[in-house]
Design a protein that fits this description.
The chain is α+β, with helices and mostly antiparallel strands. It folds into 2 domains: 1-53, no CATH class; 56-258, Beta-lactamase (3-Layer(aba) Sandwich). The protein is built from 8 helices and 9 strands. It has helices at 2-20, 63-76, 102-106, 131-138, 155-169, 173-182, 234-246, 252-257, and strands spanning 24-30, 33-40, 42-44, 49-50, 57-58, 191-192, 206-209, 212-215, 230-232. A 3-stranded antiparallel β-sheet has the order 5-9-6. A two-stranded antiparallel ribbon has the order 1-2. Helix 2 runs parallel beside helix 5 (155-169). The relative contact order is 0.17. It holds the Pfam family Beta-lactamase. Residues 21-255 form the Beta-lactamase-related domain. It comes from Lachnoclostridium phytofermentans. Keywords: Membrane.
Length: 258
């Protein structure tokens, strides 16, 4: 049965790739059993490197799942409370509205700006990025709404959550994820991408310009801190998915809250 399903999935993917020039990797699992894992297209067109199930990709906003989990792990340990004002964790910065809580950041209800919009030069800068650069850029930006009033997607909110993780844990965000999530789950091909650091096995990014494939624009990955800076593989993401159901990282009560 599973072999038949795998064939159907592969046939669909072959058709999809031929129609839309898809390039990437897939993994389909059911009840803990992997039905198919396979790469399609090229990780590097210019070097003719094919994608496999072990090819690393930027997972972009799926990063937020790991940031949120880290916050909840710290809450379980009694090191923070999601109902706390974020100003409790930024004593050196007075620009943040005291009404904004960690919960607001987690649920995109803080009223903070989106972050990755046009007119945001920090994202494309090749200079060394510091947290102060981000705080200074946003310090005079008005809230989009009152905290808790409505939902507004905010990458900046998750940037701040990663800063809170560092302030509370006493170690870097990258190190916290490595020690508390990636290593315990044996996610050996997952990590945080940093500016000017080459990640072996990471797929190149391309996009369609009319009918031509061209390289993605440069992005300073340090600016996507906490909101989009993780790379992974489909095999590692299966390990992450399983952990969300079996209580490997936090209690069922916390999982239900998430």
């Amino acid at each position: 049965m599973n072999s038949l399903l795998a064939t159907k999935i592969n046939d669909f993917m072959e058709l999809y790739c031929n129609t839309w020039a898809f390039s990437g990797s897939i993994l389909v699992a059911k009840k803990g059993e992997t039905i198919i894992k396979k790469g399609y297209g090229k990780a590097s067109i210019e070097h003719s490197v094919s994608n496999t199930s072990l090819t690393k990709f930027r997972i972009c906003s799926i990063t937020k799942q790991f940031t949120a989990m880290s916050v909840m792990m710290l809450q379980e340990k009694g090191l923070l409370d999601v109902n706390d004002s974020i100003t409790n964790y930024f004593p050196e910065f007075h620009q943040f509205d005291k009404r904004i809580t960690i919960h607001h950041l987690l649920t995109h209800t803080s009223g903070l700006q989106y972050l990755f919009r046009e007119g945001f030069p920090i994202l494309y800068s090749k200079s060394k990025h510091k947290h102060e650069n981000m705080f200074n850029f946003f310090k005079d930006k008005p809230l989009l709404c009152e905290p808790g009033e409505k939902w507004n997607y905010s990458n900046y909110g998750y940037y701040l959550l990663a800063c809170i993780i560092e302030n509370v844990s006493g170690i870097s965000y990258d190190e916290f994820l490595k020690k508390n999530i990636f290593e315990p789950l044996n996610m050996e091909n997952t990590g945080n991408e940093r500016n000017k650091v080459i990640v072996p096995g990471l797929a190149n990014g391309y996009y369609l310009n009319n009918n031509d494939l061209i390289h993605n624009d440069y992005v300073n990955m340090d600016v996507t801190f906490g909101s989009g800076d993780i790379y992974s593989t489909v095999e590692d993401m299966l390990l992450w998915d399983r952990a969300l159901y079996n209580g490997e990282l936090v209690s069922k009560t916390t999982l239900d809250t998430i």
